[in-house]
Amino acid sequence: MIFESLSDRLQATFKKLRGHGKLTEKDVNEAMREVRMALLEADVNFRVVKQFIQTVKERAIGQNVLDTLTPAQVVIKIVDEELTNLMGGTQSRINMSPNPPTVIMMVGLQGAGKTTSAGKLGLALKKQGKRPLLVACDIYRPAAVKQLQVVGAQLELPVFSMDAGTDAVTIARSSIAYSQSHANDVVIIDTAGRLQIDEKLMQELRDIKAEVRPHEILLVVDAMTGQEAVNVAQSFHESLGLDGVVMTKLDGDARGGAALSVKAVTNVPIKFVGMGEKLEALQPFHPDRMASRILGMGDVLSLVEKAQQTFDLEEAKKMEKKLRREEFTLDDFLSQMQQVKKLGSLENILGMIPGMGGLKKQLEGQDIDLDGKEMRQIEAIIKSMTPQERADIGIINGSRRKRIALGSGTRVQDVNKLLKQFGEMRKMMKKMKKMQKGKKGFPGLGALGGLGGFPKMPFMH
């Protein structure tokens, strides 16, 4: 989980602060010492840490914070604002050209995920109504062109390539003319990388830049390389002049130091982040939302945006009616489960909900994977039932359970476990309905909107 260790340390520090009715300068100094250690352990650049602590301390002690009614909250607010500023302050968007095509050059070292990111960026722009063209300019790495063509086919994006032996500058130049004749309003150029920075690579990139005059040069870096990602960003920026950073594998980096340092060190904003290996659109980077998540305040805006993209509003209304009438069936559960899967991992969802940190800790080690083996097993069991059985689990006797287990390739114990937990879940939903009395939860999350309230979901061990 991204920023997990940093988030835990900071929340523990602020919990101590909240225990003080009135803060002294000594309390603030001690808290800042803890924050400094937490940031350094998270692999944040030490100069960035020094400046950050100095700024927060000056604001905390200089604004008569110690005399306010809730000094701890004011200190947390200052840390939140300064973390947001550290990561760029506001969201940085792509500079779209008023005269198409907008040319975007993707650069970076080998292994950072440049080719996949080019496809994911194309998908993100396609969802905004653009018509992107992917351009294969990596003529050195074996099968690089083929990889981009496979990614393009999977995402239904056109890919421009030329015969082997054609140089990268010619391919880039030819792709612009091609895009104009094929009504592509965005050209995304996938350039060659190296295992490390060398002058030959940089010269080729400078030649492509001079030829096609890109509106955006985006550097793709692997968040898991930590401070090395910041060093790479600095080198590329000095040589090429970057417009933004795409940070990949951010969900795999529990420390997150690169994300916190790159803007402060290079003055180049993070524009997009990649989470996971799946071919899903890159996510825009919101510094304020990320700061809130680090401090355990959640990121409801991103969750709601994701839910709106994922859930069918009409389907959600139908589900709400069924819940009110207590007609929720295994068919409905399967439908909701498949929609929730699209939101990402349960850990990620809980990280976006304020106050869910405790529940997330409780669920650690329970091997909950919203797209894992157990979820697929549940789907297989439900799909092996007849429509009548899914509508009324009460009719499922011993012989039916054996038939369902055989049809789904599972054991009778697995079928029994699902039925038992689904029954418990329905009872809990009845209780929650009475408790809520008309209160509204997250739109469209239906049966799974109250994850925290259920004793055990059918996909938990």
UniProtKB/TrEMBL annotation:
InterPro entries: AAA+_ATPase (IPR003593), P-loop_NTPase (IPR027417), Signal_recog_part_SRP54_M_sf (IPR036891), Signal_recog_particl_SRP54_hlx (IPR013822), Signal_recog_particle_SRP54_M (IPR004125), SRP (IPR004780), SRP54 (IPR022941), SRP54_GTPase_dom (IPR000897). One of its GO terms (cellular component) is signal recognition particle. It comes from the Bacteria. Involved in targeting and insertion of nascent membrane proteins into the cytoplasmic membrane. Binds to the hydrophobic signal sequence of the ribosome-nascent chain (RNC) as it emerges from the ribosomes. The SRP-RNC complex is then targeted to the cytoplasmic membrane where it interacts with the SRP receptor FtsY. This is Signal recognition particle protein. Part of the signal recognition particle protein translocation system, which is composed of SRP and FtsY. Composed of three domains: the N-terminal N domain, which is responsible for interactions with the ribosome, the central G domain, which binds GTP, and the C-terminal M domain, which binds the RNA and the signal sequence of the RNC. Residues 269-282 form the SRP54-type proteins GTP-binding domain. One of its GO terms (biological process) is SRP-dependent cotranslational protein targeting to membrane. SMART domains: AAA, SRP54, SRP54_N. Pfam families: SRP54 (PF00448), SRP54_N (PF02881), SRP_SPB (PF02978). It catalyses: GTP + H2O = GDP + phosphate + H(+). Keywords: Cytoplasm, GTP-binding, Hydrolase, Nucleotide-binding, Ribonucleoprotein, RNA-binding, Signal recognition particle. One of its GO terms (molecular function) is GTP binding. Its EC number is 3.6.5.4. The keyword Isomerase does not apply. The keyword Ribonucleoprotein applies. Belongs to the GTP-binding SRP family. SRP54 subfamily. GTP binds at residues 108-115, 190-194, 248-251. It is found in: Cytoplasm. CDD domains: SRP_G.
